Every structure is written in structure tokens, then in C-alpha cells.
TrEMBL record:
Molecular function in Gene Ontology: sterol binding
Record-given protein name: Oxysterol-binding protein
Cross-referenced CDD domains: PH_ORP10_ORP11
UniProt KW Ubl conjugation keyword: no
Classification of source organism: Eukaryota, Metazoa, Chordata, Craniata, Vertebrata
Main location (coarse class): membrane
One biological process term in Gene Ontology: lipid transport
Quaternary data: Heterodimer with OSBPL9.
Location(s), subcellular: Endomembrane system; Endosome; Golgi apparatus
One Gene Ontology cellular component: Golgi apparatus
Length: 699
């Protein structure tokens, strides 16, 4: 039935990844055209926790399941809600849609449309006719004539009254329609000739016009909030200004302004068919595999990412993609063009942060808690430089769920001992390295081994777990990272949500740490990477902590890649070490005794990791999994690389759909869920504890 009905009841509302879904009491007020919610039914007489204007809203049942639906307000705010079953969802959706339609039509009747502004594509005959000649000095924007309303000179702008917001909304709707006409006019231009749909000026016009409309929509949202504050006296608690969500699908790769067409199945290379036909990972062995470091060989791959050729050649593809993104848009589900990819997986990039294993092992050699904290800070700050492959900002492959990466490093014991004595001689000149004894009395190797394993434990959200250990020195590190990427206009921001813990078992110390944000800047010219944000390192047992600031470059002046930090004793609030410099160049450490040490990262020796040959790797190990994409990128065949990448992504989507339909949970291989984090299934601290217990029992 189409009658108006006030309804109320409990629904689940999605807040964020941390809080997740929460039960809230919702009330549909048909008279006011509002959807309000409260913490519970008992608090209904209090001020609502949130309110949405339904006029102009879009109510959309979700296709992810039969219980979820979204309410997208005209202001850009969105509620993601979940009913108890499909019947209840349908009841809420139908009542909301009736109320929305009623109040939207009421606005239209009470406010007749404004006079349209002039907007026309200059017509000088067909684009292919001889009459259309574009002079070299002629800007493509001059082909468009956009009329603007001007205020009479000397007249003051009247104060915005509440009912004028309706006029603003109407003007906004007209502007959005004109912007869509502009996009359509550009895309209808021929693919060749003097003025084409791929003209870079026109593509830039598409991108900037979309960004302008985003900005205007957000400004309109602010006006609505100000209007609400005038009515209620103050802004509602917890009010936030949200960016608008994308209205278009970006499920396809883009090439020369259009979605790519891939050959039929029969024409696909055997390697692509193989990628698509690999069995469901849970049907393969999900038992943890013990990797023998002796099977690993020193890595000879050296894929530096300094080639700008592909980026320069595909500038139009980037512009086309930018014209369809919105500020603040989550890029997790956006399929980016293949040519901007690095030739390695994100899991391997985490391994490359361990390229100075001598500094990692030397942490536990510190003679005091203060020295060990300082050494950890030194290792932490030297890890990011080698983690980046070259100066050009490219994106590593998004790991598919179940993907793993294994490697190891070997460090001569003499090198670690020498470095430990040389680097920090001012702190502990007489330190001794205690080596474990071989229980079988066999000859010990003259090197330390650091083993590394990473696994993609979740797809939505994308979470990776990684673990590294040196058994001989009783040191290990466990971390989980969720990468959140957002479009910021002319840059892309990546937030590394998660936590790592370093365990020094010989000293019974644990060091918790976080990771900085990363930014890909100047994505239309020469893209480069910048780190930003504040990270903290803490050791609860010793009371030492470190605070490190990665500074982003100011708009005017300032240095690139600057980092500052300090190590202090929390009990006395005494700073024992200060650090400053650039995280990819030279770092300066100043100690409490007045001594200063400089670390030139460009001259630090890098230990090559050891990796098993492809033929010995499992089908879901990173290098074997992505080998055809990597080979195609090395050969410069972007189309072929895109096809292989698309095959892997299609297979992952099909597997995820099958698990959803069969209600089959995903089985991780090496990492176990522990609260909000992920922990390696066989960490060194458990192994050592079990060995100590066994030794005590035998005694």
C-alpha cells in the first residue's frame, strides 16, 4: 500500500570497521520527512543521536545480502542499515521510499524550476568536417560556452534564509545536470580528428568539473548543518561532514577512455586459463607448511620502479579515471590501471622493510633497556627507505585472500657482533653476544637466519599479517596491517591501520609500534611517495617510549621526507635520545651524553633476501601467483598484464561468492585471529616457553 505510516523499531547500523554494527532504535517521522535514531527505545524522549532529511534521498536495498539497505540523503550523508530478515527490510524500504517521494514532490510543487542557464557546445559543423580547424593557441575549454549569473554592482548579498536552501538545492541540481551534459558532450566527440574525446584539456575539464561539483555539494551540506544549528541552538552531538560516495561503478580497467574488451575464453592464453581454474584455496591444503631455508636462494630480482614511460604514455587513462573519482572516496574496491603497478605484491613489500637484518638482530644485543629502545628506533627508521623500490610512486599488487610470501636472510655472526660494537660503542663498549648452544653438539653455522612469512588474512577489509624471527637470538616481530586508501584530489592517501609487536625473549620485553600513513603525490606528473603522521613505540616493562613524527611537506617551502622523534623514560619524563633528518637520506641521533651519530641510509648495506625458486613455490605464494603479470610488465605488455591480473581478480570474486552462498568461512593458513588482531600460529615466544617448561619437567 502507498499510504504514509510512521514506523519505529530496532535496526543494526554500521558505524566503522572498529565499532562495526550496532543496534539502534529508528523512528520514521512522515510529517517532518525525517529518519531519526536513538541509542535505545528508552532514550526516545531525548535528542536523536542522528537525523536524516528524506527529501531527495535515495533508498537502496543492498545486493550483498537480503537484510541490508542504505539511505543516501541529498546532503551526502549515508546510513547503512540491516534488518532482521528480508521481510522486515522490505517493510522499512517501502515506507521510507513513500515518505521520500512525498516530500521530494512537495518541494518541487512549492518551488518551480529556475530559469535554465545557457550551456552549449559550440557547433561549427561536424567535428570531422573541414570547417572545424583547431588553432594551436586555441584552448579546448573555449569550445564551451557557460553562462553565469552576475550580481548587480553595489548590491549586498542577502542573508541566506532557511527556505532559500531549497533554491540552492534546485540550482545545485541544475548544475549537476549541466555537468552531466558537459561530460556527455565530451564523450560523444569522435575518437580521432582535431578535437577528440581524449583531448587532455577536455579530460582535465572533466576531472576539475567533477571536483568542483563535489566541493559545492559539501559546501551545501555545511549550510544545512548551519541551518540545523540555528534551529536547535547547536550542532547535534557527533555530527560529521562526510564526503559524497561515488555514484558510478569503477569495476573495469580503463584504457584510452573506455572499458577494455578482453578476448573470448577460447583465445585466452593457457596461463590465464590456468589462473582462473586454480582450485578454491580452502580445497587445497591449508595446513601450515614448514619452509626449509636451505631451499631458498639469494634473490637476483632487481625491479627498480624508475621508469616513467608507461605513466607518460597513459596520461589520458589517469585523467579519465580521475574524472570519475570523488574526494575522500575509498579506493579499496576500485580497480586501478595495470601500468601503475609495481612488479611485486604488497606482502613482498613488507618483507623488503626487513632489508637490514643486522640492525634487527642487533636490537637484542643492547646492554640496557635504554639502549635497546634506541636501537629499535634506529632499525625502525632505516626500514622505510629500502621498502620503496625507486623514487617513482607505484602501487604493489593487492594480495588476494590466502596469498602468502616466504623469504629469509642470512647474516654472518661476525658482522652483527662488529656492527653492535661499532654503532653504539658509546653506550655499551663491553657488550657480549650470548650464542645459544646446539643441543646435539653439531657444528653451528657461522651466520644468523631471519625467517619471514606474510599472509593475506582478509579481503574486505584488506588485512595482511606478517611475522619474522631469529631463533638464535630469541627475537621476533608479529604485525597485522589494514591498508585504507583514499582519493585526495591530486594525490592518494594510504592509512596503515594495525599494530606490530617486537618480542625480545632474552629480556622478556615487548615493544608495540604502529606505522605511518603514505601518500602518492603529483599523480598527474611525476608521482612520488611521502610519509606522514605520528607513530608511537612503547615498552611497558621498561617504561621507555618513543614518539616519531613523519612530516609532510608544507604547501610553501619546507623540506621533503623530514622526520623528528625522541626517546624518553616515562617515569622520569627524561628524553634520552633525539633524532632528526630524512627517512630516505641521513638521520642524526643525539644522545643524552652529548654524543651524535649520523646514519646515511643511502650507504647502508642491504642484505638480499633468499626466496625459493618458482617451481618449488605453492600456487598461492606471491611470486608464483603473480608471475604472469610480472613477466608482462617487465616486457612492457600492459594489455597482457591487465588480462592476467583480471583473471586473478575474477577468480577471487567467484570464490568469495561461492563461500557466501555456501556459508563457508575462510580458513587462514599461518595466522590466527586474536581479538582485533592476527597472530602467527607458531610464534617464537610459544616455542621458547614450551621448551622451558619441558626442560623444567625433565629436571
Amino acid at each position: 500500500s502507498d499510504h504514509m505510516e510512521n514506523i519505529c523499531g530496532y535496526l543494526m547500523k554500521y558505524t566503522n570497521l572498529v565499532t562495526g554494527w550496532q543496534y539502534r532504535y529508528f523512528v520514521l517521522n512522515n510529517d517532518a520527512g525525517l529518519l531519526e535514531y536513538f541509542v535505545n527505545e528508552q532514550s526516545r524522549h531525548l535528542k536523536p543521536r542522528g537525523t536524516l532529511q528524506l527529501a531527495g534521498a535515495v533508498i537502496s536495498p543492498s545486493d550483498e545480502d537480503s537484510h541490508t539497505f542504505t539511505v543516501n540523503a541529498a546532503s551526502g550523508e549515508q546510513y547503512k542499515l540491516r534488518a532482521t530478515d528480508a521481510k522486515e527490510r522490505q517493510h522499512w524500504v517501502s515506507r521510507l521510499q513513500i515518505c521520500t517521494q512525498h516530500h521530494t514532490e512537495a518541494i518541487g510543487k512549492n518551488n518551480p524550476p529556475l530559469k535554465s542557464r545557457s550551456f552549449s557546445l559550440a557547433s561549427q559543423g561536424s567535428a570531422n568536417s573541414p570547417g572545424v580547424q583547431r588553432r594551436p593557441s586555441q584552448n579546448a575549454v573555449s569550445f564551451f560556452n557557460v553562462g553565469h549569473h552576475r550580481l548587480p554592482t553595489g548590491k549586498r548579498v542577502p542573508i541566506m534564509q532557511p527556505d532559500h536552501l531549497v533554491d540552492v538545492r534546485e540550482m545545485m541540481s541544475q548544475a549537476e545536470g549541466q555537468q552531466r551534459d558537459l561530460i556527455r558532450s565530451i564523450e560523444c566527440l569522435p575518437a580521432s580528428g582535431h578535437l577528440t574525446s581524449l583531448d587532455q584539456d577536455l579530460l582535465m575539464l572533466k576531472a576539475t568539473s567533477m571536483a568542483t561539483m563535489n566541493c559545492l555539494n559539501d559546501c551545501f551540506h555545511i549550510l544545512q548543518l548551519q541551518h540545523a544549528s540555528q534551529q536547535k541552538g547547536s550542532l547535534p552531538a557527533g555530527t560529521t561532514i562526510s564526503w559524497l560516495e561515488p555514484k558510478i561503478s569503477l569495476a573495469n580497467h580503463f584504457k584510452n577512455g573506455a572499458a577494455q574488451n578482453f578476448p573470448a575464453e577460447i583465445n585466452k592464453p593457457a596461463s590465464v586459463r590456468e589462473e582462473q581454474s586454480i582450485a578454491e584455496p580452502c580445497q587445497l591444503t591449508r595446513e601450515p607448511e614448514e619452509i626449509n631455508p636451505d631451499e631458498e636462494l639469494e634473490d637476483i630480482c632487481d625491479d627498480k620502479e624508475d621508469d616513467l614511460g608507461a605513466v607518460e604514455e597513459q596520461r589520458s587513462v589517469i585523467l579519465h579515471l580521475l574524472s570519475q573519482l570523488k574526494l575522500g572516496m575509498d579506493l579499496t574496491r576500485v580497480v586501478l590501471p595495470t601500468f601503475i603497478l609495481e612488479k611485486r605484491s604488497l606482502l613482498e613489500m613488507y618483507a623488503d622493510f626487513m632489508s637490514h637484518p643486522d640492525l634487527f638482530i642487533a636490537i637484542t644485543n643492547g646492554g640496557s633497556p635504554e639502549e635497546r629502545m634506541i636501537r629499535f628506533v634506529e632499525y625502525y627508521l632505516t626500514s622505510f627507505h629500502e621498502g620503496r623500490k625507486g623514487a617513482i610512486a607505484k602501487k604493489p599488487y593487492n594480495p588476494i585472500i590466502g596469498e602468502t610470501f616466504h623469504c629469509s636472510w642470512r647474516m654472518p655472526k661476525s658482522t652483527v657482533a662488529t656492527n653492535a660494537g661499532t654503532d653504539c660503542s658509546a653506550h655499551s663498549p663491553s657488550e657480549q653476544v650470548t650464542l645459544p648452544k646446539d643441543p646435539e653438539g653439531q657444528a653451528e653455522p657461522d651466520y644468523y637466519t631471519v625467517k619471514f612469512v606474510a599472509e593475506q588474512v582478509s579481503h574486505h577489509p584488506p588485512v595482511s599479517g606478517f611475522y619474522a624471527e631469529c631463533v638464535e637470538r630469541n627475537i621476533c616481530v608479529n604485525a597485522h596491517v589494514w591498508t585504507k586508501s583514499k582519493f585526495l584530489g591530486m594525490s592518494i592517501g594510504v592509512t596503515m591501520v594495525g599494530e606490530g609487536v617486537l618480542h625480545l625473549l632474552e629480556h622478556g620485553e615487548e615493544y608495540t609500534f604502529s606505522l605511518p600513513c603514505a601518500y602518492a603525490r603529483s599523480i598527474l606528473t611525476v608521482p612520488w611517495v611521502e610519509l606522514g603522521g605520528k607513530v608511537n613505540i612503547n615498552c611497558a616493562k621498561t617504561g621507555y617510549s618513543a614518539s616519531i613524527n613523519f612530516h609532510t611537506k608544507p604547501f610553501y617551502g619546507g623540506k621533503l621526507h623530514r622526520v623528528t622523534g625522541e626517546v624518553k623514560q616515562n617515569m622520569t619524563n627524561t628524553v634520552v635520545c633525539r633524532v632528526q633528518g630524512e627517512w630516505n637520506s641521513v638521520l642524526e641521533f643525539t644522545y643524552s651524553n652529548g654524543e651524535t651519530k649520523y646514519v646515511d641510509l643511502t650507504k647502508l648495506s642491504v642484505t638480499r633476501k633468499r626466496v625459493r625458486p618458482l617451481e618449488k613455490q605453492g600456487p598461492f605464494e606471491s611470486r608464483r601467483l603473480w608471475q604472469h603479470v610480472t613477466e608482462s610488465l617487465r616486457d612492457g605488455d600492459i594489455d597482457k598484464a591487465t588480462e592476467h591480473k583480471r583473471a586473478l581478480e575474477e577468480r577471487q570474486r567467484n570464490e568469495e561468492r561461492l563461500r557466501t552462498e555456501t556459508e563457508t568461512p575462510w580458513c587462514t593458513k599461518y595466522f590466527l585471529k586474536d581479538g582485533d588482531g592476527w597472530v602467527y600460529h607458531k610464534p617464537l615466544w610459544k616455542t621458547v616457553s614450551a621448551a622451558q617448561t619441558q626442560q623444567m619437567d625433565s629436571n
